[in-house]
Amino acid sequence: MKKIRFGLATQIFTGLILGVLVGVIWFNDPRVVTYLQPLGDLFLRLIKMIVIPIVISSLVVGVAGAGSGKQVGKLGVKTILYFEIITTFAIVIGVLIANIFHPGQGVDIHSAQKSDISQYVETSEQQEGKSVAETFLHIVPTNFFQSIVEGDMLAIIFFTVLFALGVAAIGERGKPVVQFFDGVSHAMFHVVNLVMKVAPIGVFALIGVTVSKFGLDSLLSLGKLVILVYLALIFFLLVVLGGIAKWAGINIFHLFRYMKDELLLAYSTSSSETVLPRIMEKLEKMGCPKAIVSFVVPIGYTFNLDGSVLYQAIAALFLAQVYGIDLTIVQQLTLILVLMVTSKGMAAVPGTSFVVLLATLGTIGVPAEGLAFIAGVDRIMDMARTVVNLVGNTLAAIVMSKSEGKFDPKKGTEVMKAG
């Protein structure tokens, strides 16, 4: 008799369904938050605990073991250029879709339930006070350990790459350092496997709290927006990212199947961080060099948020339509340019999508308080855009590996089919 396989994806999906049922049955019951929120927070904290050690150790081993300053600089320029092109595509697609389907027409903003967005307003005001120069200066840390404490990924990557280049430059004397971080990397990936055992419980708790807080009814008044965002994200996944995958020599559906556990986990938790270590591990198994994976994927988490910017473009035009504001071509071009800048400058800020939208709406004359109208369903849309962000960053590592002549599509396809 064949043994039934109850894998991680099945366990996570089961947790997801049970969480939805608990949220529906005990809708608006404070006991759900009291009992389940700590479980969800515990899982997210476990993940955040291991992300930074994995990024640092993988970068040191990858860059020190295989790279020179010239090679890293070349890879960095290509990576940022690629991210900027794909991000621009996502914003333009979002603007076009919102103009074609007009999701905000006929929506009564005054009769809808609104959520508190004061925390995002305060964060947005702090970020808007920074100039472009200050934003770039922030990448260079004055205290590396403070950057670790604050989880400032760009600053961490900047220092770690310089440190790794220094280790590579001292030759034989640097080998013990590389061996140490190689050991740390392997140990942390073992910790990841331990943490993943409680992932279904974390998913169950996080989804249960979300559904209990907002309920399924909150989707009805904003159903058109939610459906349009999902369809736009699916279009971007299959057409844009699917086309890029084909160029790289792989099938996007094979990639989905290979990453099914990670996609489901990212969707359930609305967090790309929860799967960063496993994605890096799977990319290396496909044949992507460790040096490229450990460099491209963490940077992508702050610079390549395709799903987020596509959603932000649709949401900004949705609110303009709700308020009856007819945006000119110049205003819409301004929206595209502002999103291109703000989505990068605020990548490490909590509540990124809302903060970016707050910073953007003022430039096109849309009242910022309109965001309180869509805050109740933001989590539902956040789940989908997290998946797109994840696929985009995974594909970026494959594209960069191929551009460096270090990726074999046939081997990658065989690994994906076997995985």
Describe the structure.
The protein has 419 residues and is an all-alpha fold. It has one domain: Proton glutamate symport protein, CATH 1.10.3860.10. The protein has helices at residues 8-25, 30-66, 69-101, 118-128, 132-137, 144-150, 153-169, 175-196, 199-214, 218-221, 223-248, 252-258, 260-269, 276-286, 290-303, 306-322, 329-345, 352-361, 371-403, 409-418. The longest helix is centred in the N-terminal third of the chain and has 37 residues, at 30-66. It is globular, with a radius of gyration of 22 Å. The two termini are 23 Å apart.
Residue stretches low in confidence (pLDDT < 50, at least 5 long) are: 116-128, 346-350
Termini distance?
23 Å
Number of domains: 1
Largest sheet: none
Which percent bin holds the helix content? over 70%
CATH fold call: Proton glutamate symport protein
Q: Kindly estimate the percentage of residues that lie in beta strands according to DSSP.
A: under 5%
What is the general shape? globular
Measured on Cα atoms, how large is the radius of gyration? 22 Å
